[in-house]
Amino acid sequence: MIGTRKKLSVVSSFILTVSAILIAGSLFFPWWKMVFIAPQYPEGLNIIVFPNKLEGQIDIVNGLNHYIGMANFSEANFPELQYLPYLIGGLAAITLLTALLRKKPVLYGLIGVFAIGGLIGVLDLHSALKKFGTNLSPEAPIKIDPFIPPILGHNTIANFHTTSLFGTGMYLVIAAFLLLLIPLWKDRK
């Protein structure tokens, strides 16, 4: 009887397997992006962040950022892109292992790792945005006050309106985390 209390149900194991698939699938979609809109760019410019690369009109954005003294966006400036796919793949593997083991204590540990990893990711992104927005070159042709672009939301710098938002990959990760919580409720005693 005591052993069964610590065992997850088959349905919970299936839910964890779906969670692992969502985590692994998130590797193929953007996790975050910034959209820049201005009168001269009504169609907008994008910086799109995947777990392993940057896409979008990065050269144009870097050319414009030069005028306010901001450092260039590049994959070299984000070393996380080199190892993040491995961390995500490892998280997917641990989630699948948790589904196979069907042990509640392992699920508790997985949820803790997931939450701590998410917090570290948010803090890392905030730190990068702060570095880019506050370390402006004093020799820049256009002088603006230092700023921190938001992780989510809107910001206006000069005549550019920026919007920061999650991409499909991040929504898959959030859904995967929420699925991890279902067995806590479903298999409670």
Fraction of residues in helices? Answer: 40-55%
In DSSP terms (H or I, runs of 4 or more residues), the helix count works out at 6
Which secondary-structure class do the elements indicate? Answer: alpha+beta
Radius of gyration: 20 Å
Strand content: 15-25%
Can you tell me about this structure?
The longest helix is centred in the middle third of the chain and has 31 residues, at 104-134. The model has no long low-confidence stretch (mean pLDDT 93). The chain is α+β, with helices and mostly antiparallel strands and 189 residues long. It contains six helices and five strands. It is elongated, with a radius of gyration of 20 Å. Helix 2 runs antiparallel to helix 6. A five-stranded antiparallel β-sheet has the order 3-2-1-5-4.
Topology:
Layout: H1 2-5, H2 10-25, E1 32-38, E2 41-49, E3 54-56, H3 58-65, H4 80-101, H5 104-134, E4 153-157, E5 160-166, H6 168-186
Antiparallel strand pairs: 1-2, 1-5, 2-3, 4-5
Helix pairs in contact: 2-4, 2-6, 4-5, 5-6
Overview in brief:
By secondary structure, this protein is α+β, with helices and mostly antiparallel strands. The chain has 6 helices and 5 strands. The protein has one domain: Up-down Bundle (Butyryl-CoA Dehydrogenase, subunit A, domain 3).
